[in-house]
Design goal:
Elements: E1 4-9, E2 12-19, E3 22-26, E4 31-35, E5 40-46, H1 53-58, E6 62-68, E7 76-82, H2 91-108, E8 113-114, E9 117-122, E10 129-134, E11 137-144, H3 148-168
Amino acid sequence: MPGARLVAQAPLLRLPEAVQGRGIRHDRPLAVFWLRRENLVVEVQPRPEGITAAQWDCRAPLWLRVHDLLDGELPMRVPVWAVHLFERPDLETAARDALPLLAQAARRETTARLLDGLVLVPSVGPTPLGEHRAGDRRVRAVGLDAAGRGLRDGMAQVADFLRACLGGGR
């Protein structure tokens, strides 16, 4: 996101052998960003340990934990799912399938304000996009290419989603 500044990053330690599906180890959070314009601090938490019941319900392997520096409220959380398939997934379906997980988790969350969700999928070429809404919840699915315009456009879609999501709070 424009204006985001990396303020801390954990080192990655490659394990000689995967343990419980994890080939790397790192401190938590993996990275911390300061969004000066928005007065937010964003922690990137891949595969967090000691998760809440609501996080378990969501089954998301990555979480963004967002602290608003001005309101003093509970932190906000954004679940991020990464989908890897042998065939190109339908992004509308991916977003629709993630929405019930988000809604169930939102009903149980007591330690943070659960925001909208994001699904990331690998893509080749033009950046596909899918979105599904129910009530005040929304999940957006974005395709990300490995390089070039597809990566740039996909990252712009992610930034737009996060800006709208975090700007709105709840």
